[in-house]
Specification:
Blueprint: E1 5-6, E2 9-15, E3 36-45, E4 63-67, H1 87-91, E5 95-102, E6 108-115, E7 122-128, E8 134-140, H2 155-158, E9 162-167, E10 177-184, E11 192-199, E12 201-209, E13 216-228, E14 230-232, E15 246-249, E16 256-262, E17 264-268, E18 288-296, E19 303-310, E20 319-322, E21 327-334, E22 344-346, E23 348-349, E24 360-364, E25 371-375, E26 406-415, E27 419-420, E28 422-427, E29 432-437, E30 443-451, E31 454-464, E32 474-478, E33 495-499, H3 514-518, E34 523-526, E35 533-534, E36 550-552, E37 564-566, H4 576-588, E38 593-595, H5 631-638, E39 671-672, E40 723-727, E41 740-744, E42 748-749, E43 756-757, E44 762-770, E45 778-784, E46 787-792, E47 799-800, E48 805-806
Parallel strand pairs: 3-11, 4-21, 12-21, 23-25, 24-31, 37-38
Antiparallel strand pairs: 1-2, 2-9, 3-7, 5-6, 5-8, 8-10, 9-14, 10-11, 12-16, 13-15, 13-18, 17-20, 18-19, 19-22, 25-29, 26-27, 26-30, 26-36, 28-29, 30-31, 32-33, 34-35, 34-47, 39-48, 40-41, 42-43, 44-45, 45-46
Pfam families: DUF4906 (PF16249)
Organism: Bacteroides stercoris
Domain DUF4906: 257-331
Length: 807
């Protein structure tokens, strides 16, 4: 289709809803024997609303806004608007299409196209005679559309006539218009017809003023968002456009900008405060201006910032409709970055406006920007959550919202025991947690969204000089099935992309230098919990390690073995209500390590009198002697999105292989917890998965060594590195060593007393999976200085490192 440029808009495709056939499209698109009569047509353009002297109560859509106002700020005035159409150009008529419909049957009788000279407002046209009373429509500045509307088409369909368009600012071309005259009869009206035209588009003008001397705001982008693609030539659309029917208009990023846009009947609501006009409170398809840039307060540090201005009636905060033939003039004064103004978005968005949320956000400390934000009204990834694993005790719908009113730091590491991970944590009125990086180049922190003093949810902030979320380094893993083994379910050969380091680690490089080895540890997680705990801060063989330097929100140092509680102090119940209580406590107390209570082995708590549940969730007992596992155990199985294929009979590896990310998953967006079989290539023996025979270790040659003395572990000089280096694919090192993954001897935090143990002895990592139907344990990688166990089973109360796989 030919693309015709007009009024600063480009017709991309005509979405004609009328019936058109080749036989019907003759000259003028009429049946050849239709008689016509001359008619003198007179035209005028009705002024756009808002251009006349009216008050806001009468529909003036001018809007004076002050954005992000802070005490003591004044602003410079804006420059003169440039690059938009003049009033004369907005009224100009270049060509017309005339459509005549009979009133008796509502069918098209005649159509005609005519070009007009500059300034011409009259034209001699023809209309079908002998039709009687009719309705005449005039479309102006749209090119020749007469061939798009078939003879005999219904007026009701003609009113839906539309095209998809895109636009920048007006550049001297004309605006599409429409007008009509009902009850016209050329035989009785002296062959004279007057039609008043109105524009089929709205005009949006932005006049931007910026801070006075002292503060600096540098504009990087000014865009008009959620602009309707469809231009309805004749009548307004009766419904709001869908998301797929929206587009974005750009600009030259100056302080004075104008766009001409199709109308968007997005709707209205009950808002009364202009500062509450932000994404969570407005219709999803509402049109808005997005101003982005860098704001530097006097004496402060530059921060990325965005300002959102939703369009609508200038006198109604709850109106979000963009109406044709209306001017929307926005005089916006930027006066600061006050986060109590919901139209202000401070920091670089890590959550893509709440569409890419997770429990962990990764920040690259080499980025010049130090201010960040993420949507804090969505739990984790916002996944729908069944009551069985819900900390609320009821089903949580997908993307359900929480309602914080403040935010706070929970804990942070300090690099060198001095440099903080974060300098600032705050809550923005529009539902974001905003934070500023501290001086540390590597580190971890947990921040919480609160309502009053109650923690509603919390998130892990992982800062590193290595990458941001999009640059996380991954390696290809392949499974190595040994099907037919007793006690094991059969698995299939498949591939994964897994992080090259533990979650929260500053490095994935194999080393035996203490300062560098500690950087590879990352953080620890109890099975099924989303919040991390600080890892060991030493490279020695110890069962009571000091942790890395960690501080709470008040600047108090957090010591090892602190902030702990036994699960029995939360509840000793064994029903779903008790599960809810345990999960709710974990959510509300992200700093607290929950110890197991081995007294849950008694029959009173569903135990067999011998075996505790070894779980931070009280009385999580598995299947025993054919009896079903306990309610807490069934919930624990599913917290990280895996579970058992059959909760009564599943063997080892009989777990749900397709892990579905849950709201408790600790991984960043685009990643999730790994399945149980992901490390099966780490051994090569065919009769088992786990072995203490170095001949079966699928590792680099230097790591084919055992030290069976637990007190020595990897301190043994025969180990080149502080852990083991495994082949993730194949049986040999690839030319680029891309299939060599280092797992450090980071140890773990013991679920019985909270001590950090086995540092220098064990290289552990959690999977998302339970171990089997008859086991209270979880599935994990168990590597020690004398053992490699890709399919092993620890206590779920213990806290181990995590390594995430790509979705």
């Amino acid at each position: 289709m030919k693309v015709t440029k007009f009024f600063g808009l480009w017709i991309l495709s005509v979405l004609c809803v009328l019936s058109c056939t080749d036989e019907e499209q003759g000259t003028g698109n009429i049946v050849p024997d239709v008689a016509t009569a001359p008619v003198k047509l007179s035209l005028d353009a009705t002024p756009m609303r808002g251009t006349v002297s009216t008050t806001r109560a009468r529909g003036d859509n001018s809007l004076d806004l002050v954005l992000g106002e802070e005490a003591g700020k004044t602003v410079n005035t804006a420059g003169t608007r440039a690059g938009t159409l003049t009033d004369v150009q907005e009224d100009a008529i270049n060509d017309i299409c005339v459509f005549q419909f009979g009133n008796a049957d509502g069918k098209l009788k005649y159509s005609e196209y005519a070009s007009l000279t500059d300034g011409q407002l009259t034209a001699n046209i023809s209309l079908a005679s002998g039709v009687g009373t009719c309705t005449v429509y005039v479309l102006a500045n749209v090119g020749d559309l007469t061939q798009k509307v078939s003879y005999g088409s219904a007026l009701a369909d003609f009113k839906k006539f539309a095209a998809e368009v895109s636009s920048g600012k007006g550049t001297g071309q004309n605006l599409p218009m429409c007008g009509y005259k009902t009850d016209f009869n050329s035989e009785t009206d002296n062959a004279s017809l007057t039609v008043s035209l109105t524009r089929a588009v709205a005009k949006v003008s932005l006049n931007l003023t910026t801070p006075n001397t002292g503060d600096v705001f540098t504009v990087t982008s000014v865009r008009l968002m959620n602009v309707a693609k469809k231009l309805y030539y004749v009548e307004s659309a009766t419904t709001a456009p869908t998301v797929a029917e929206l587009t974005t208009y750009t600009s030259d990023n100056t302080k004075s900008i104008a766009w001409y846009v199709p109308e968007n009947k997005a709707g209205s609501n009950s808002l009364t405060d202009w500062k509450d006009r932000y994404e969570d409170n407005v219709p999803a398809t509402a049109t808005y201006i997005l101003i982005e840039g860098s704001y530097t307060p006097k004496g402060g540090i530059a921060r990325d910032v965005a300002y959102t201005i939703y369009l609508g009636a200038g006198d109604k905060a709850g109106d979000f409709n963009v109406v044709r033939n209306t001017k929307y003039t926005i005089n916006a004064a930027i006066k600061g970055t006050n986060m109590n103004d919901g139209r202000v978005l401070v920091g670089k968005d890590l959550s893509a406006a709440g569409t890419q949320t997770a429990n962990c956000y990764v920040v690259n400390t080499t980025d010049a920007n130090k201010w960040y934000r993420f949507k804090a009204t969505i739990r984790g990834n916002g996944a729908a959550t069944s009551a069985q694993i819900s900390y609320t005790g009821t089903d949580i719908p997908a993307n359900d919202r929480i309602a914080p009113d403040n935010a706070a730091l929970v804990w942070e590491t300090r690099e060198g025991d001095k440099a903080p991970t974060l300098d600032y944590v705050g809550y923005s009125r529009n539902g974001y947690i905003v934070f500023k990086l501290g001086e540390a180049t590597e580190g971890n922190a947990v921040v919480a969204a609160k309502n009053g003093a109650t923690t509603l949810w919390s998130w892990h902030i992982w800062i590193t000089a290595a990458f941001d979320r999009n640059g996380i380094k991954v390696q290809t893993y392949e499974t190595r099935p040994r099907n037919g083994l007793a006690s094991y379910a059969n698995i299939t050969k498949r591939e994964f992309k897994m992080m090259d380091r533990n979650l929260g680690a500053a490095s994935g490089t194999a080393t035996k230098v203490a300062e560098e080895a500690i950087k590879t540890y990352g953080v620890y997680f109890q099975f099924g919990r989303k919040d991390p705990f600080p890892a060991a801060g030493v490279m020695t063989r110890t069962n009571d390690a000091d942790i890395v330097p960690v501080y709470d929100a008040n600047g108090n140092k957090i010591f090892k073995n602190s902030n702990q509680i036994k699960n029995s102090a939360i509840t000793t119940g064994i029903d779903q209500t008790a599960v809810k209580a345990q999960l709710a406590y974990a959510v509300e107390n992200p700093l607290v390590f929950i110890l197991r209570d081995d007294n849950d082995k008694t029959a009173a708590y569903g135990g067999d009198g011998t075996n505790p549940s070894y779980n931070w969730i009280f009385a999580a007992h598995p299947v025993k002697s054919g009896a079903e596992g306990s309610v807490p155990w069934k919930a624990s199985n599913k917290l990280w999105g895996s579970g058992l294929q059959d909760e009564k009979t599943s063997l080892i590896l009989g777990t749900i292989a397709d892990v579905k990310k849950t709201i408790y998953d600790p991984c960043p967006y685009g990643y999730h917890m790994p399945p149980q079989d992901v490390w099966t290539n780490f051994t090569t023996i065919t009769t088992a998965y786990n072995t203490g025979n170095i001949a079966g270790y699928n590792v680099v040659a230097a790591d084919k060594y055992n030290q069976t003395n637990e007190s020595t572990g990897f301190t043994d000089g025969n180990f080149e590195v502080w852990g083991r280096r495994f082949f993730t694919t194949g049986d040999a090192e690839a030319a680029d060593a891309g299939n060599v993954a280092f797992y450090p001897a980071a140890g773990y935090r013991y679920g019985s007393d909270g001590h950090v143990r086995y540092v220098g002895w064990a290289c552990y990592v959690w999977s998302a999976s339970p171990y089997s139907a008859t086991s209270q344990h979880g599935g994990f990688l168990d590597t020690r200085s004398s053992w490699v166990g890709p399919v092993s089973s620890p206590n779920r109360s213990d806290a181990f490192p995590v390594r995430c796989v790509q979705d």
